[in-house]
Structure formats: structure tokens, C-alpha cells
Amino acid sequence: MVAIPIFGAPVVRARDLDVYEDQGPHQSATTTALLVLATFFVGLRFWARYLKSAGFALDDYMVVGALVVTFVTGGLNYGMIANGLGKHMGVVPPDTLTEFFKLLLGFECVYVTAVMLVKLSVLQMYLRIFPSRNFKYGSWAIGGVVIAWWIAIVAVCVFQCTPIPKAWNPMLEGHCIDLKASFVGNAIPNIATDIAILAMPVSQVWHLQVNLAQKISLLFMFLLGSFVLFASIYRFTTIMRWQIEDTTWTLAEACTWCVVESACGVISACLPTLRPVMMKISSQWGSLNSSRRNGTKTTGLGKSGLGLRSKSGFGTETIGGTTSSSTAAGGGIRSGTRSKHGFSKMESQADTDGHSLDELPLQKNAGGIQVQSDFSVSAEHRITDEERDAHHRR
Predict the structure, then answer these.
(1) Which has fewest Cβ within 10 Å: 118, 202, 241, 349?
(2) Is this prediction's pTM over 0.85?
């Protein structure tokens, strides 16, 4: 392998054909794909809010802030790619390397800011859902650790060299800390807080007075974002491959995975809030399939060409001890609790701050989650004009 200096004239030998390799296009494509996905899921989150007519909460605004900072992280990654990231340092001009290291310094600070906002957004959502005082104390404690971690990493990034400009101009007199050790020190607390945040809802959900299937369903909802943990771990493994003698080449994958981790964090923070969207899509898909199986054209809820009208009462699983209800005009679709006389209609209940019924506080008692699966179906025969005439003739 060719010996490549950190700065100075490029050193390239003809037999080292791989010295001209460029990871830049691949890293750019990955960055673009994850930024688009993160934006899509944030859009779904706000659509879910619209479907439930719920107001926006602090965690919603924090997710938007995390998305904006993630875009800044991606923009800096594009800038580093344009200035040599993904290429061997031996083929990157010295002036370009200076710009690269300036962008890298800003990239490190912006990346940890995006990660911090994602973690705080998830913790804020937990505070709104889980009412336990001890749980709130735990959330505040982890939030404090996350903020302290962010301050420490930003300080290390800014003051990694003395004087500070030596971070992008190694020819200056002074000294720098061991950057690889600082990257490892960044990653380990990051992974540890990810694990703690993912594990927090487990004990709360497990102690709910509901059946095992409902517990598993809720745990699955909260653990959907676990793939961000795998992104953090994989990014850590890419950092271990970094070699200071060829920073632009060996750090390319790690920088792109910083963007991947931030974007995956935004997606993970949105997933638990998307239940209204999934219910709407599944209900429309189910109605379409039912129409096709019956071979009828549906013109309205509960109406078909057979002249039958169905009435069904059903409940949906909600968080917070209330049963969601809906009444479709003309369709006879109702939800509520069952009484001695059949089904009784219940008015939709929302919490005082206007949030979705799917995100009301979980209670550790029998009323924490209600599921009403009973239903009744009745059909009424419509008297046609021919039957009416036959009756008069009699």
C-alpha cells in the first residue's frame, strides 16, 4: 500500500491502482436516501396528528428540529465528499484537505446535536405517555446525561487542538488530542443511552393489567425504533477502521453512517405515533377487498346493491383507559361498551391537551387499556315497489 502523507504534495505510484478509488458517489446516494426517508416519516407523523385532530406537542417540534439538523449534517457530508471524502488523501490537493478538515470539525458538532434532539424527543414522548413519578425521574435523569454528553462532545470537538486552527492546519505549532480515542468516547455513551431509552418502557408495559398479547403489541410498538441502536453500533465499528494517515478514505463510511444514524433516529421517534395512519390505510384496504369479494359497488358506508345495511359496534385498543368511538353517517358504525340492552354509544374522549387518544397516559390498572371486540350485525329488508303493488292487489 502506498504511503500517503497527511499534508504536502500528493504521492501516487502507478502500481497502486486502487489509490484512485472513490467512495463519494456511493456515500452521497446513501445520504440522500436516508434524508428522504426521514422526511417521509416526519410527514406521516403530522398526518397522524391531523387524522386524530390532535394538537402538536413538544416532542413533535423537537423531531422537526432533529430533522432540520440532520439535513445540515447531510449537507456537511456532501461538502466533505466534494472536498475529498471517499478518496485517498494522496490524491487530494492540500488546499482541498484544509477545507475538508474545517467541514469535518463542524460535522462532528452538528451530528451530536441531531442525535441529542432525537433522544430528547423520545424522552419527552415518554413523559407524556407514562404518568409514573419514578418513571419521570428516570426520564429526566437520562435526559440530563444526554445533554451532558452533548456538551462534552462539542467541547472536545472544538478544542481538540491547541491552537484551535491546528485542527485543519497541522503545519501550525501546537498539539492535538488522540482523535480516535475521542471518537470511541463519543460512541460508547451514545450506544449506552440508546439502550437505556429503548428499555425504559418495558417494565411499565409489562406491569399493565392486560393480557400477554396486548403487552407484546405495546412492547413491539415502543421497540420498533431499535434499529437505530444497530446503526449506532455499526457506526462504531466503522470508526475503528479509521487511520489518521488516510483520513479522507478510512473515515468516509463512518461519516455517512453518522447521517444514517441521525436519520434512523428521526424515523424511530416517529414510528410509535403512526397508529392512526396504519388504521386508516388498513380500513380502506379492507373495504376495497371486501367490495371486490362481494362483487358489488359500494356507494356509501354500510350500503350495497343487495339492499342490506349492517350495524356493527366495535372498540379499538387505546392507550389511557378510554375507548375510542366513531359514528359514520348513514353507515351505522358505532363503538362503545356493551350493556344489558346491547351496545351503548360512547362519546369520543380526548385528553385535556388535545393529543391523540392513542397517546393518552398509560395506567397500571385494569382500566389502562380497554379492548372491546364484541359486535352485532343486523340486516333489514327493503320493501321494493313490486312487493308493495302485490300487497295492494291482495
Answers:
(1) 241
(2) no
